[in-house]
Amino acid sequence: MQRLPWTLLERLTPYHAAWDSDGVLAHVSAPLRKFWQTKEPLPKLQEQMKLLRPFSGIIKSEWLPDLTDLNLQVTHAAKPDLVIRGQMVRYEEIWILVGSPNVHSVAELTKMGLQLSDLPIHDGTGDLLIAVETSLAAHRETQERSEQLANANEELHTVNLALSGFVTPDVRKTLGLAEDPQDDAGTRAEAVGRFIEHLQAAIEFRESFLANMSHELRTPLNAILGVTEVLQEGVYGTLTEKQLEVIQTVQDSGDHLLSLINDVLDLSKIESGETTLRVAECKLESLCNSTLRLLRQQIEGKGLELRFENLSKRKSIQAEGRRIRQVLMNLLSNAAKFTNQGHVSLRIDDLSGEDFLRIRVEDTGIGVSTEDQKKLFQPFFQVDHGPSRKHQGTGLGLAISLRTVELHGGRIELESTPGKGSCFTVLLPFEAKTSGLPADGTRKTGRRPDTLMRKTKPDPAPAASGPPPRKTSVRVLLVDDVEDNRTYLVDFLRDRGFQVEVADNGISALQQVSEQIPDIILLDIHMPVMNGVNVLRCLRAMPETRELPVIAMSASVMGQDRDLCREIGASAFLPKPYKTKELMEEFGRLLDPDYIAQGGEGE
Q1: Same domain for 414 and 496?
Q2: Residue 595, Cβ density class (10 Å: 0-12 exposed, 13-18 middle, ≥19 buried)
Q3: Quick one: which of 181, 136, 266 has its CA closest to 575?
Q4: Phi and psi at residue 287, in whole multiples of 5°?
Q5: Domain holding 107: CATH number?
Q6: What local confidence, expressed as pLDDT, does residue 43 receive?
Q7: CA-to-CA distance for 516 and 555, rounded, in angstroms?
Q8: pLDDT, greater one: 459 or 514
């Protein structure tokens, strides 16, 4: 195997360093050199690096064979601490650390002596930090205006009481004041109304910004994750084990960034009232067991005892199972994160005298101070904060959990003692509030659910004499204005045996359809010249393409695109970034599954 040049590796992942089997520094990338002590002989691993995860300590060279998926702290006498989140991989007798700076705010980045431009190209953390800072600024402005509103309302109320109690009608008339105290209330109401309008405008601006930022973040992330996936699929040839490990690191970083983006947007949608519950029967035993299966390794891997007790007399409740599972995962993973010895337990029972289910997540961890308990459910708040913190996270999990439970009509309570542990109690009604959406997620549009989406397969043609014509290959028209998204997807589909044509805007797409109708269209929604929504309207207006399978795609996740595409007849909707497996599942649903199984070719 030929070793990749360090310059090429630096283009792929700018933050990397390499050591030999004795722990002696063999190479360090340019962005990391300013954090390294320069001395002769070359420093060893234990002289520079401190391990933060999965446990804390000075790294020793004999640990190298066992180190994977680590957060490493690099110290320098003249620089603040820099945390690298990444993975240690082996190539022959060389050990290479690849990763990215693990930062959670612009201030933290600046304190490290870095700028947004210092972050890797494939790492969207910089864009996320800008989005978070803007969101926080909007949130602070909203709080300030709320305080102004409360103060103004209190002052007006005080003045109104004073006038009504001590000022006679004659004095009021002389001063030009309203004779009826109710008129003062009307003036106050008008002032309150103006404040509310300003508040609403600020909130709408924040939501609009987050929606646009979501699209801008997800568009390049779709290409990054898509390329790594097709590389792993072997579309561009067989890769070495080392290359696959590096690609997996890039994909893990992209998935982590995607989860951060989703958390920010999910919280925003809940706060803006855009989130609707899809209430259905939620089986308690299955819900708890599936959650514990996912977290068992994290909990027991730390040497903690995992306990589960189900004392509820009910088999199920009416709730959105996916969201309740996420609440349990947030609480249990937090319990494991902040507990070093003892146990983590999950206990469910029925609240006596009320139609509520009680879920308790208890740990024997570090606990939460009384002061921090007041802020714990605020967005972005973290008990363990600062560049040297041991526990990573965004501070959004508990905020989302609280709002999710409140959306169901429940509440979360906390009991905690520093040094002894914490107990989070979730109270959920047996029957959650409905959201206007039935369990199958279809909209109430007055149309039958089976006609909401356009037919995915044409009606069978009348029987004809002789064998049916052979379908040689499925023709796909890919419509997307971003070249990076088109390139990897075209290569993937052609590798699977599909015939693929491309268009970079809606007008070009309609021109190609007029010349030859494809078997299926992949249609991006946000494009210049003519957007995907108008393309879809044109396709559904023409008899020849009224039933043509169209998969709409969008990097916007605020909900409007999905609903609009359903309304005008999209066959399916895929939010970006998506997995190629998800795309193939939609192909199998919309087309003859035999074509998919045989790589796009018929019998």
Answers
A1: no
A2: buried
A3: 266
A4: -60, -50
A5: 3.30.450.260
A6: 60
A7: 28
A8: 514
